[in-house]
Give the backbone structure.
Amino acid sequence: MACRVANPSTEAFTQQTVLLTGATGLVGSQIMARLLSRGHHVIVLVRPTRQECVRSRIERALQPLEHTHLLPRPEILTGDLSLDSLGLTHEQVVDLAQQNIHVIHCAGSIRFRQDASTGEPYATNVDGTRRVLDLAQQIKPQSFHFVSTAYVQNRSQQNVREVLVDSDEHARNDYERSKIQAERLVAQVEHLDRVVIHRPSIVVGDSLTGNTPTFHGFYAPLQVAVQYAQRFGFDAEAGRAFLQHLGLSPSDWKNFVPVDWVAECILDTVLARTAPAENANSSPQILHWTNPTPTPSSQILEVINRVIDAKFQPTAAANQSDNSADFREMLSVYDSYFQCDPLFDRQQASGQCPQLRCPELSTEVLHRLAQWAVENNFGWPTKQVEWPEFPQLENLFGGFPRISSGGHGVVVGSLELRLLGPGAPPPVLFGYSAGRWSQLTQGCGALEPAIRITTSVGSFVHAVANRESVRDFEAQGQWLTEVHSGSNPRQMLNKWFGQLQL
């Protein structure tokens, strides 16, 4: 089967290394996919759960995003924000310090009320951020990026500015308070070259596909409305009562932003060569990723009604007074969230990414988002994620001696093998020295490959198992070879292929 390979861009020729937390979340998974598709070296810090190993969690995050082309897999570090050094070994920390790295801290808890037993959201958002900053102090990244929220500011202001918050007194829930405290930690950090705080508003799913791995914010009232309709019916009168229970009037608005745009803006900021001149001497840089055209409450209700009308037979709702207590209980956790939003100053964000305009969240786009959530039952039950195993890969690379950082001598050529799709290992880097290829392991992420081979993991295993040449697979469009530099690349490539243990 032919493999669809993402078109290489000029950006991929200057490979960057990024350490990412929160890679399985809504924003983090989109950032991870975009970095991987453009040829960057991605290291993700992932915590196993009782139900899933770290590899399964990454496959679950990436597989739904392969709707247009297959993706490589990142390098996975098993870690935990509740542990010192994030649970990493001394050797792993040293390895990170040897790489010219960017840090994107996306991981966070979105609990609105504090959990007395776990300490969330403060355990992750405050203490976890402190530990990530401690690691950053050790590895000295090129830049440090913290994903916060636009709702840390006092929303009674008419125009919320892109500035630090002095106090958490105006916070309306524990989530906002924890993010304010985390921002202050980030602002106080020293000896980091560039620090950026990203503040998205309410992030919704992908504007093109509707896909989302989480169902909060926009999806919370939608899910409650679906549950309400299942129990009591849902008609025009119920819709009006619905807005009232949310604390919204038809003329109010909420600020929704699609995750594809937010991820692209953050990624563009991370990969920028320098900070804007007006922020060059200030730390941190604060960017509001908010929608210049907020969504009216009446539009939210219209979308909810359309989705429910399509899912259920028209039914007159039961007496509102009989059910209002149940309805209020369902929505009470979001009391502080669903209030009319302020206007957000976007001057610094617009100056950072003037070419990236927020997509219009029309009724059709919002309906696509809502319909995707309903069709997927808001992610319940959790679907089993599967991927093929390729144990033969370890044998195939047996002909390449493994050399760690500092042990590869003078490398006169380098090759990166980027295998794509479920079951693929992270990109593998090889160095050519003294007439033979070696597999480079730790501390070599910053080495720019002279040759890059990109193909699906299945095609690669099939090719070497059947002794098919690189040229044959290139001719079939299943094998993409990029040559960036070096002498006699075809001869070096043939030697590399010859060292594979067929």
